[in-house]
Amino acid sequence: MVALQEYLLFQDDHCRSDADKMKNPFDTLERVAFRKTLRDFVAKEIKPNADTWDEAGEIPWDLHQRVGALGVGGFGVEEQHGGLGMDDYFMRATYNEEFAMCGANGVPAALNGRMISIEPIQRLANADIRSRVLPDIVSGRKGSSLGITEPSGGSDVAGMKTTARFDSGTYVINGSKTFITGGMTSDFFVIGARTDGDGLAGISLFFVDAATPGFSRTPLDRKMGWWCADQATLYF
Ligand SMILES: Cc1cc2nc3c(=O)[nH]c(=O)nc-3n(C[C@H](O)[C@H](O)[C@H](O)COP(=O)(O)OP(=O)(O)OC[C@H]3O[C@@H](n4cnc5c(N)ncnc54)[C@H](O)[C@@H]3O)c2cc1C
């Protein structure tokens, strides 16, 4: 019985045209079209320039906006804030797959400091912050980064040392973050800081404008790779 089933499957496979073989059931027309748009963009706009940008140590700022126009920063973000008003993890994966094929992974890395900070802003920031900054971040007009890792270590997030103390109606952050992608160019930051005791439960996330007094930053030295992605150390 098993042998017969295998034979029938084998025969069936050989009777189908190439186009019908092994179709991914999750590849909807929309997702296939999205992949094609990204593949064409990467081939035409990024691949020919990737090495030059990597050697130069930066990507042109307008690339953030041109990639923003593809909608890739808008997953999970409401339409009123410049997002797509929907989410799709297959499309998110497609974005990462197609951009990884550009030949220099510093390029997607340079774009992704923004990506990892959009979600906490969308999920956790108040309505005023969301409407004020998300349209500019999602469209690529302004930059944003997520600051979790510290000079003392990154894996042990629960051991975070940066503190935030409530003082005269506002929080004052003290500490340092390092390896922060987009750190030298970002206008906005989501920063992890300890507000309440030891461990993970004592950590809060803060939305910080780069223009806040007392904030400064320095670039990391040239790295082993991902040269065109800026990583910075931040000081509070
Ligand atoms: C290119 C780049 C971009 C980055 N961008 C950002 C960013 O935008 N925002 C941000 O917040 N961070 C960023 N990071 C930091 C990144 O998240 C950290 O590098 C990472 O969390 C590891 O932390 P660490 O480098 O301090 O290594 P450590 O935590 O010091 O770890 C060093 C080594 O020890 C191992 N280790 C640690 N703890 C244990 C354990 N308990 N058991 C066994 N092994 C252990 C680790 O696997 C690693 O091999 C970036 C890093 C790089 C390289």
What does this structure look like?
The protein is α+β, with helices and mostly antiparallel strands. It has one domain: Butyryl-CoA Dehydrogenase, subunit A, domain 2. Helices cover 40% and strands 18% of the residues. It is built from six helices and eight strands. Strand 2 (163-167) and strand 3 (170-174) form a beta hairpin. Helix 2 runs parallel beside helix 4 (89-100) and helix 5 (106-124) runs antiparallel to helix 6. The longest helix is centred in the first third of the chain and has 28 residues, at 29-56. The protein is globular and about 70 Å long. The relative contact order is 0.13. Residues 1-13 have low confidence and may be disordered. Flavin-adenine dinucleotide (FAD) is lined by residues 113, 145-149, 153-156, 179-181, 226, 231.
Low-confidence stretches: 1-13
Total domain modules: 1
SS class: alpha+beta
Major sheet: arrangement of strands: 1-5-6
The CATH architecture designation is Beta Barrel
Largest sheet: 3 strands, mixed
Full CATH superfamily name: Butyryl-CoA Dehydrogenase, subunit A, domain 2
